[in-house]
Specification:
alpha/beta; Purple Acid Phosphatase, chain A, domain 2; 12 strands; 40% strand; globular
C-alpha cells in the first residue's frame, strides 16, 4: 500500500502546512506549476517525489521534470500532465492518446479547481488537486490524499489548507 499526497500549482510557495502532509505520505506527486526548483527539492528531501512541469515552470524545472509522467504504482497505471482538461473536455494534445491507451488514474492541474471525476467512457478516474500555492484566483488552497493498494484507489481525502482573502 502507498499513501499518496497529490498537489499542484504551488507557484514557488511551500509552507509548514504542506510539509506536515508531506511527512505523512509515502510518496508526493506534483502536477506542475512548481515554480522555484527549491519547492520540489524541499519535498524530495523528505519523501519520494514525482512531478511534471507546468506552463509557468522555468528551464531549471523543465530540465528536471517531464511534461508527462506515466508510471504504475501498486498495479494502478497513472498518467500525470499539467494541462490535461477533464472528461469530455480533454486537452487536444493528449486526447487521442488518452482514448487509445487510458490509464486507470489520470491526473492534471492548471485550473486551480479541485475536481475528482470518473470518466465512464474511458473507464478512468480523473483527479485535479486544485492549487496548494497562494498565487491565482482560487479562494481555498487544496491538495488530495489517497491510498493505492493492489490495483485499487481508496480512502480519498480533500485537504483544505486555508481560505484566502
Amino acid at each position: 500500500m502507498k499513501k499518496i499526497l497529490l498537489l499542484s500549482d504551488t507557484h514557488s510557495f511551500i509552507d509548514a502546512q504542506i510539509l506536515k502532509y508531506v511527512k505523512l505520505a509515502d510518496e508526493v506527486w506534483h502536477v506542475g506549476d512548481i515554480g522555484l526548483i527549491e519547492v520540489a527539492d524541499s519535498i524530495k528531501e523528505l519523501k519520494p517525489f514525482r512531478a511534471v512541469y507546468g506552463n509557468i515552470d522555468d528551464k531549471t524545472v523543465r530540465a528536471e521534470y517531464p511534461l508527462d509522467a506515466k508510471f504504475i504504482v501498486e498495479g494502478v497505471s497513472v498518467w500525470m500532465t499539467h494541462i490535461g482538461g477533464y472528461p469530455d473536455k480533454y486537452n487536444q494534445r493528449i486526447r487521442e492518446e488518452l482514448k487509445a491507451n487510458p490509464p486507470k488514474l489520470f491526473i492534471s492541474g492548471h485550473s486551480h479547481i479541485l475536481k475528482v471525476q470518473y470518466d465512464q467512457k474511458l473507464n478512468l478516474l480523473h483527479m485535479n488537486p486544485g492549487a496548494a500555492g497562494k498565487h491565482g484566483f482560487h479562494k481555498v488552497r487544496t491538495m488530495l490524499r489517497f491510498e493505492i493498494e493492489k490495483g485499487d484507489i481508496k480512502n480519498l481525502e480533500v485537504i483544505e489548507l486555508e481560505t484566502r482573502v
